[in-house]
Design brief:
Two copies of one chain form a homodimer.
Chain A lengths: L5 H22 L6 H8 L3 H7 L3 H25 L6 H10 L3 H14 L3 H28 L5 H30 L7
Helix pairs in contact in A: 1-2, 1-4, 1-6, 4-7, 5-8, 6-7, 6-8, 7-8
Chain A binds a DNA duplex through helix 3.
DNA sequence: TCACAAACAGAACCGTGATTCTGCTAGCGT
DNA sequence: ACGCTAGCAGAATCACGGTTCTGTTTGTGA
């Protein structure tokens, strides 16, 4: 095999990362061994190390994977032309939470406490999501509350902050609720 | 040494648990070895195992330690006879957050995702704190907002829920903010 | 189609770290 | 004051798991 085409290579990487996320959601970041990921992905240890420098690197990729997916969900609302009010926005976000990903997300927070690279990923994605939320809320203020754009942006900041906080708390509750009991899904 | 008096025994246990918390706040739950705790506490491995069944048991004790301390802070407000309004309550709680304990708290959440015993501790303490918050808010509604007790209790529920969520989110932000940079304190 | 280097499987290696074991020591009941 | 036994220190053990190494295979560019 010569160097894989970029598309194929990316496919393998995400195949590994997705298997890792599944393992992590079951057993946590530190309790899943490379052997577990090997079994889950169907690939071998050697292969994994051809795509990721080491386990920490893989953890970071998994963190990015989960967070990006969450941000994407939000991105769709940001582009909507009928912006929902903050309460509605929040409950839609909450409805879109997947328990398994919530668990990995919360684990990621814990890891961010220790690993600077993961911390940067978490902070970056959080900021990005909050910015999107800010856009959503601003759009709502302008379109349905008839605020002037400048004033709306200003008012939106604390609201976006609150929505984000409530969303993250709900993420935590979902993770805790689904731990132990729900091995499926 | 015969069996230590209960007070002394409890003292040793908390000496170990506190050292563990300090280690955890620096390096995370899984990256601190028994040797680290040995060094931090000044005790030996053998001694630690005389007081805790194993590392998981110690982690649970540390989790309980941190959460109970947090709940105690709140407990004082609950007993206050001049109950603050929810915003004030929240900002006082936030002001009382210690970065090191915030980090361990967040790590604990991640662990709760995987370890049922830790999960139970976290859920239990969260519920307890929310109940206290509920009492605080109810007292405020009765005393300064002049609501009838029954109605106040009803109104307090969603408010307490929100305050708790916002508090937890702030805990997360503090943990993330203080990670990496602040090795001191 | 061919050849070569990258991707891959799987075993081997090796360090790390939890736990246990062996004595020694010191606090508490008497 | 004395002795017994639980605390305790510190070394030894032992398994686990991350990483690397050795071939083998296979996809891709020419």
């Amino acid at each position: 095999m010569p160097r894989l085409t970029d598309a194929r290579k990316e496919l393998r990487r995400s195949q590994i990362a997705e298997a890792a996320v599944r393992c992590f959601s079951r057993n946590g970041l530190e309790r899943t061994s490379i052997a577990d990921i090997t079994a889950e992905s169907g690939l071998s240890a050697g292969s994994i190390y051809a795509h990721y420098r080491n386990k920490a690197d893989l953890v970071r990729a998994a963190a990015r994977e989960v967070l990006v997916k969450r941000a994407d969900v939000l991105g769709e609302y940001a582009a909507a032309d009928a912006p929902p009010d903050p309460d509605e926005l929040l409950s839609r976000l909450i409805a879109a939470i997947d328990p398994a990903e919530a668990r990995v997300g919360v684990q990621t927070w814990g890891e961010a406490t220790t690993d600077p690279a993961v911390r940067d990923i978490v902070v970056d994605m959080t900021d990005r999501m909050r910015a999107m939320l800010h856009d959503c809320v601003t759009a709502w203020l302008v379109k349905v509350e008839r605020q002037e754009p400048a004033r709306a942006r200003e008012l939106a900041t604390p609201i976006a902050h609150r929505v984000m906080a409530l969303y993250q708390a709900e993420l935590l509750y979902t993770a805790l609720r689904s731990a132990t009991e729900g091995t499926a899904s």
